[in-house]
Design brief:
By secondary structure, the chain is mostly beta strands. Helix content is 0%, strand content 23%.
Length: 84
């Protein structure tokens, strides 16, 4: 089963990652609600019908099309157990 969450705010020009600066991104998943804060500003807040996250794997990816770029994480942390 595939779940998708697209949020137009996250695609806006204010959500700019390519400025050669570090940014704080906080992802929180509680049941079917997903929030993302970018530099202390909520850029994504939504639910996915039929989705109920109770643990497992989360992956990160990045793409630049035909160009190239660095995709780096610094001080990555996570909650080691799910609380639901």
């Amino acid at each position: 089963e595939t779940h998708h969450l697209y949020y137009p705010q996250a695609a806006s020009s204010s959500f700019e990652l390519e400025d050669n600066r570090w940014h704080e991104v906080v992802l929180e998943i509680k049941g079917n609600r997903i929030t993302v804060d970018y530099d202390a500003e909520r850029v994504l807040d939504g639910t996915i019908d039929g989705f109920e996250f109770k643990g497992g794997f989360i992956g990160f990816s990045g793409t630049t099309g035909a160009c190239f770029n660095y995709h780096r994480f610094d001080n990555l942390s996570f909650q080691p157990s799910c609380t639901f």
